[in-house]
Design brief:
single chain; mainly alpha; 14 helices
């Protein structure tokens, strides 16, 4: 009898809403019908679902990364560094999720992948426009990749706008200048369509910040947030490279890139070079 009474109380828990005839449901709020029906397999192979879901999840995380990066750039521009710190910390946490996604994808074996790889045609993660926007926001500007997106004029214009905009490091360097640290005019007024290149005046400014932490605490914390983001991004790139190598070896990618060779090459790029160099000189 006690058991039945307990079950009855569980079923009639007070405050739980069960009438949604005229109310919005969880599924409606998240548009789950659209979200969960967007996995369109091109083959009958069981593991293609894994491949699609992992990449879609990663794109959702990248959407949130861009949301946070854009807002943090605005906050730094306005001098509101404390708000930017929260957003940049969130970006780092999101990056860990994407890194773990590669661990799940690595359960796909070479023999399984070749069963549906040809169905992908020339579609490739190399074409991820959100990833390009993240690179642009971090100061890595590659104009030639814009050619990929000519098929969609609206998207192309959006990418061009991001390509021409100042990135996270640009506004951070301006923050150094705003407190009186000398920065070369060529850096402060640089062409934002070009990939950022290390500058001696920027290195000296960061050295001053790191040697006088108490005086420049906010800028010191900003520098460490930037290092966190680049550190996690490089780990993300490394896991991507090793997962690709594990699944397809050194084959050419579906999008025509050199695959593992290309992914190894981009590992050498540094987004915030002076912040790494000063560690040797402190």
């Amino acid at each position: 009898m006690e058991n039945n009474s307990y079950e009855g109380k569980k079923q009639k828990e007070e405050g739980v809403h069960t009438d949604f005839i005229s109310r919005m449901t969880y599924g409606e709020y998240l548009q789950l019908d659209d979200l969960l029906s967007s996995q369109k397999r091109l083959s009958e192979h069981h593991d293609e679902m894994l491949f699609i879901v992992i990449h879609q999840v990663s794109e959702l995380w990248m959407k949130l990364i861009l949301h946070e990066l854009k807002s943090s750039i605005d906050c730094i521009n306005k001098g509101d560094l404390s708000q930017a710190f929260k957003m940049l910390s969130r970006v780092s946490k999101i990056q860990t999720q994407i890194i773990h996604a590669w661990d799940v994808l690595s359960t796909l074996t070479p023999s399984e992948y070749i069963e549906f790889r040809d169905d992908l045609g020339q579609a490739s993660g190399f074409q991820s426009y959100q990833y390009r926007m993240i690179e642009f926001a971090l100061g890595y500007k590659t104009k030639h990749v814009l050619e990929i997106y000519k098929k969609d004029p609206v998207l192309l214009e959006k990418l061009k706008s991001e390509h021409e905009a100042p990135g996270l490091y640009d506004v951070s360097i301006h923050a150094l200048a705003k407190v009186g640290l000398p920065i070369d005019e060529s850096v402060l007024n640089r062409d934002y369509t070009e990939t950022y290149v290390a500058n001696e005046s920027v290195e000296k400014a960061w050295l001053e910040v790191y040697r006088n932490v108490d005086r420049y605490w906010d800028l010191y914390e900003l520098g460490e947030k930037l290092i966190d983001i680049e550190d996690w991004l490089q780990q993300w790139r490394f896991r991507h490279m090793k997962t690709v190598e594990r699944i397809i070896g050194h084959k050419v990618g579906t999008g025509g890139s050199s695959g593992v060779g290309y992914l190894k090459k981009v590992l050498d790029h540094r987004f915030f070079p002076e912040l790494w160099d000063i560690r040797t000189k402190l």
